[in-house]
Structure formats: structure tokens, C-alpha cells
Specification:
By secondary structure, this protein is an all-alpha fold. The protein contains 13 helices and 2 strands; from the N terminus they run ααββααααααααααα. The N terminus is likely disordered. Keywords: Cell membrane, Membrane, Transmembrane, Transmembrane helix, Transport.
């Protein structure tokens, strides 16, 4: 009977024969996910839980540097009230740096994708080359470039464009440093989107008698929007939490929130709870801004 069923191609036998293979495939998928899940659990989730626990602790009265486990939500109230100007300054500088990076990166990425030809690889190397140097060393080099005796300040003073006579230790220097340090994060995603675009689609705009600006606005820019969105997020998020540029290029007063968190962790006795609350508040604020940004300008690839 079983032989007849096999010859007749009884469909009832196929699922039973295929079940071990399906089960094997499902276990393979879980095993492939295991290293990534363990990495996230150990180096992201556990530190995040520890940070949340620290953010709710309280200081021992009269014992600087000591604190105990508690549910002290006043740390978050302090983060939202005492340090609101630092949050605003961080988002302002990060927003300006993101805009300037986009203004520089888009023409560069466009030229690399459509106009560079055999120079494309060299231009790509020039974009990536700063990553071969330490972030701190690059920022320190900018402190020398923007120094009062440097050629940048000399040219701007000659043109009477510096009211105070110097550019170092000013917000301008901080924004310039942020723009330079995070510029590759803007260039590469935009270039990747433009490089995948079909040139015939862009040429079709000219065939339909659209001028260059109309073709760019209606065809090229929408095609590159996934790269633009990824680039702006990759630039804005680290720039908002950065403290190195303000420390080396900015004024002594009016620090960014990253500098406050660093000082609370390293310089203020018993400042761990406030620093942890500031870190969580910064993370929550960035998540809200990113969510609103993607909902407003996002595409199906990012939502």
C-alpha cells in the first residue's frame, strides 16, 4: 500500500519528509542570530539597565562621592531644568553641523557618483582617509588650524570678518570641528544612494523638457533621500552627544551636554546619578527627534 502511495505521489507523505529539513533550517537561523543577540545583551542591554539603576540613586547626605540605591526621580527633574540650556546648545550646534555637512557632502557625493569617472576611487580614498587618524588628533589639529596665528584667522581678519579677532574658542570653531569630523558619515550614504541610481531615469527628466533644477528636485533628490536621511542621522546623533570638539575648540563657558555628562562622571564627586540621568534624557530626546524626523521626511525603506 505504501509503495502504491509513493508511486501515486500521495501528497500526505511530503510534509512528513520535509519536516526535519524545515526544523533544521529554523535552528540554523537562530544559531546565526545568537552571536549578535549575545553581543547586544552583554554590551548594550546590561549596561543600559545598570545606567538606568544608577540614574535613580541618591547621594548620602554629608558624604560626597557616596550614593545608595533608591527611586530618586529628582535626578531627571534636575536634568530637564538645570541643564536645559546645555541640551539646547548641543542640538543647535549639531543641527548647524548637520546642515553644513549636507551642503558640502551632497555636491561631493553627486560628483563622485556621476562626474568623477576614473577619479572616483581617489575621491573615495580622500573621504575615508580621515578615519585612519584618531578623532582626538584630528580635532586637536583643527585647534592649530584655527589658532589666532593660523592662516584661517589671518585671512578672516584681513577681510574684517572676525569681530573679536579670533575664531578659536568660539561656537564657530565648534561647529566647524563637528562638521569636519562627521562629514564622511554624510558623504558615504548619499554617495551609495546616488551610485545605485539608474542614470537613464535622471536623463528622462531632460527628455521630458525639464530644466536641470526641476530634474534635480523631482528625480535626483527623491532617489537619494534614503542616503540623505541616513547621513543626517549618522551626523546629528553623534554630534549632539560629542564633547571633544567643545573641549578643544570651544569657549570655557557654555558647554554642550556631552561635556556636562563627562564632568559629572569624572570631576564631580557623587555625580554618577545625575550623569546617568542626563545620558538617559539625551538618549530619549534624540529618539523622539529621530522618530519625528523619519515620520516627516522618511521613506518606506526607513520607516
Amino acid at each position: 500500500m505504501s509503495a502504491l502511495a509513493h508511486v501515486a505521489g500521495d501528497p500526505g507523505l511530503e510534509p512528513a519528509a520535509a519536516a526535519p529539513e524545515v526544523k533544521r533550517r529554523s535552528w540554523t537561523a537562530y544559531l546565526l542570530m545568537l552571536p549578535g543577540v549575545l553581543w547586544l545583551a552583554i554590551f548594550f542591554l546590561l549596561p543600559l539597565v545598570q545606567l538606568a539603576s544608577v540614574s535613580l540613586q541618591s547621594r548620602y547626605p554629608g558624604f560626597p562621592g557616596y550614593y545608595y540605591r533608591d527611586l530618586n526621580f529628582s535626578n531627571y527633574a534636575s536634568a530637564l531644568t538645570d541643564y536645559a540650556p546645555h541640551f539646547a546648545r548641543s542640538f543647535l550646534y549639531a543641527g548647524l553641523a548637520t546642515f553644513l555637512a549636507f551642503a558640502v557632502a551632497y555636491p561631493l557625493a553627486y560628483a563622485m557618483a556621476f562626474k568623477a569617472g576614473r577619479w572616483r576611487n581617489l575621491m573615495m580614498i580622500c573621504v575615508i582617509a580621515p578615519f585612519f587618524t584618531s578623532f582626538i588628533l584630528r580635532t586637536f589639529a583643527w585647534s592649530q588650524i584655527l589658532a589666532d596665528e593660523g592662516w584661517v584667522a589671518g585671512v578672516l581678519n584681513f577681510l574684517h570678518l572676525l569681530p573679536n579677532g579670533h575664531i578659536i574658542n568660539t561656537p564657530i570653531a565648534v561647529v566647524a570641528g563637528l562638521t569636519y569630523n562627521f562629514l564622511p558619515f554624510m558623504v558615504l550614504p548619499i554617495y551609495a544612494s546616488l551610485e545605485r541610481a539608474d542614470p537613464r531615469v535622471i536623463e528622462a527628466g531632460g527628455d521630458l523638457y525639464a530644466n536641470g533644477f526641476t530634474t534635480f528636485r523631482t528625480v535626483t533628490l527623491p532617489i537619494s533621500m534614503p542616503g540623505v536621511l541616513a547621513g543626517t542621522l549618522l551626523t546629528f546623533i553623534p554630534a549632539a552627544g560629542d564633547f571633544v570638539n567643545m573641549e578643544l575648540l570651544g569657549p570655557q563657558r557654555g558647554k554642550m551636554i556631552g561635556n556636562v555628562i563627562n564632568d559629572q562622571f569624572l570631576a564631580v564627586p557623587g555625580g554618577y546619578p545625575v550623569a546617568a540621568a542626563l545620558s538617559f534624557t539625551l538618549m530619549a530626546a534624540i529618539l523622539v527627534l529621530v522618530f519625528l524626523y523619519i515620520r516627516r521626511f522618511g521613506t518606506e525603506e526607513l520607516v
